[in-house]
Amino acid sequence: MLASEVLPVPQQFVMTTKLHPLLVNFTAALVPVSVMLDAAARFFKKESIRHTAWRTIFYATVVTPFTAITGWLFWMPDDNGVTSMTIHKWLGTGLAVLLFGLFAWRLKLHRQYQWATISYLVGGGISSSR
After folding, report:
1. Are the C-beta atoms of residues 37 and 84 closer than 8 Å to each other?
2. For every one of its 130 residues, what pLDDT tens digit does the chain have, with 9 covering 90 and above?
3. What are the domain boundaries of the chain?
């Protein structure tokens, strides 16, 4: 089976369900919530909040590749040549890749039973302000 024969099926599903905008909102909400929870856990010294922050960034990292994939599938021929859509496509893809770095950083902190560092909170804050 050729990719050109298989691609229309998921593309039609994504177009019909408008799945990309839904997933974008999950990613856009989960990353800043995780960073804010890490800041609150550090400030209040609450282990339960720290674990919640970890799970939140984990879920964001699981959802985000699907967000990027559905974004590429949601791309319409009319979007070709539209500068803002091209920027949106590549910025979204780049942020999806960068999120894996933020996740790896947080995973290291989680495995070492450490509070989120100030540099992690600043980096997470910057990545959340997109």
Report:
1. no
2. 444 566 778 888 887 888 888 899 988 899 999 999 999 999 999 999 999 999 999 999 999 999 998 888 887 777 777 788 888 888 889 989 999 999 999 999 999 999 999 999 998 888 877 6
3. 3-128
State how far the alpha carbon of 89 is from the alpha carbons of 41, 51, 76, 107, in Å. Answer: 34, 32, 12, 27
Axis-axis angle for helices 118-128, 83-111 (nearest 10): 160
Q: Which two tokens stand for residue 110?
A: 């989680």
DSSP 80: T
Return d(Cα 67, Cα 26) in angstroms, integer.
9
**In terms of pTM, does the model score above 0.85?**
no
Structure tokens at 53: 């922050």
